[in-house]
Amino acid sequence: MFAIGEKVVCISDLKRNIDDIENGVIYPIKNEIYTIREFFEGNGIRLNEIINPKLQYKDGFNECAFYLKHFRKLDYDFAENLLSEITRQVKEEEKVLRRDREQEAQKQFSKVLKKVWKW
Description:
119 residues; alpha+beta; five-stranded antiparallel sheet; two-stranded antiparallel sheet; elongated
């Protein structure tokens, strides 16, 4: 079950209605995270991050809502594990870059010393 205030991820590319596009309606983007603002007619949601103009639809004058089937709950454990793994990889890359810079600096220093000692 979804709840107001809950974070969700858009899992599909939503089919865009030409009339909505012409009227400036913004659609969720696949793989982006959103927050549920409200429910609409049981199977639709509106999102905090997207506020659309009210337009005339079959069911009346409303703001566009998006079907729940296009979203899944944000898996916080997965997100935290992914962030930890990315952080670990970045730290490892930083170590390699630091080592490479130190080795290059040592080579340059050795070249300078060789030139100085030849004089």
